[in-house]
Fold:
Amino acid sequence: MKRNLFSTDTNRLLSLMGIVVVYVFTWMVHEIPLTAHGIWVRIEKKPPLIVIKAGYDAGKTVSDASVTVRHGAGREPFKRGSTDSSGSFGFTPDKPGQWEVMVDDGMGHRQTESFTLEAGFFEGKQGETEPAGPPPMGGYLVKVLLGVLLILGVTFLMKRLQQPVKRKE
Amino acid sequence: MHIADGILPVEISIIADASALALVYVGGRNLESEEIPRMGVFAAALFIVSLIHFPIAGTSVHLGLYGFAGLLFGMRAIPIIFVNLLFQSLIFQHGGLLSIGINTLTMGSGALLSAAIWRWVKINRQIKSIFCGFLGILVPALLIALLFILANYGKGMLFMISVYLPTAAIEGALTLFIYNFFNKVKPEFFK
Structure:
C-alpha cells in the first residue's frame, strides 16, 4: 500500500523545516553569507602594532564599529576608536600583560576578546597570529543542528511529561 | 537584533527578565497536548530562520518571523520566542542570558501585536499576513532603537528604521508566502 508521507501535521511541518535546513546547508556549503550575525574578533600581533580585525559570523567585515582597548584590570580605556571599512583597527600597546578589546557595532552586537602580550613582543618578536576570518562553517553547522535537536528534545520531554506513560498490565 | 549583555543597565535587564518569565508562564500555561509538538517544531524552524541574515546599510540583519509566530500561536508565541532566544544565546552567544528578558519582551511585542491584528482587524487575510510580518519585526526594532536612545547607545532611530524597513518588507512577503502555504495544506491552523 502506498503511504502518504505528508498525511499528518507534524510531517508537513517537518518537511517545511527540512526544506529550510537543506536551503541553509546549501548556502553554507557555497559560502554565501547566511549565518547569524554574531561578531568575531581576531587579534594579530605585528610588533610594535596590534591589529584587530572584526567581522560578522558570515564573513562580512564590521566597519565603523566602536573599539575600546583596556589593559589589565584597569577599567579606564587605553584607547578608543572605530574600525575602518575593512573591519580593522590598530594600536600600539605600551606594556606586557593582559589586554582586552571590545568591538561594538552600535546595533546591539558586541564582542570582547582578551589576549596576553609577553615581554618579547616589545623586543620585536612576532607573536602568534590567528588567521583573520569567520569561524569555520562546519562548526557552525554542527551548532545549528545541535540547537534544532535540543529544541526538539525539550519538546519531546515536555510531551512525555504531560502524557504519563501507560504501563502494561 | 539581539541586545547583547552589558549594553543596558543591569537593573533594567533584571526587571525585564522577571517580566519576560511571567509572560512565558502566562503564554505557556494550560498547554494542550497536541500544541506542544507544533510549538516545538515551530521553535526549531524559528531558530533556523533567525540564522538567515543579510547585509543592509553596512550592518547585518536577520529574519525573525515573529509576526507569523504571533498570528499562528497568539500568546503561545512568547514561550516559543523565549526558547529560541535561550538556545541562540547558549549555542551562538547571540544576545546574552542577562539580556534574554529584554530580547524576549521586544521581539515578543511584535508577535503579540501581530496576534492582535490577526484576531481583531477585519481585512483580507493575505493582506493581514503581510501587515503581521511587516510589523512583527519593525515594532521590535523600533522598541530596541528607543531603548538604545535611553541607554545613550547606538546609531539612532533613523539608522535603525533605514535598516529594518527593508527587512520588514522581506518579512511581510515571507509571511504571506508561509501563510499561503499553510492555508493550503492545513487551513484549520488559522480557524
In short: Chain B touches chain A through 51 residues (CB under 8 Å).
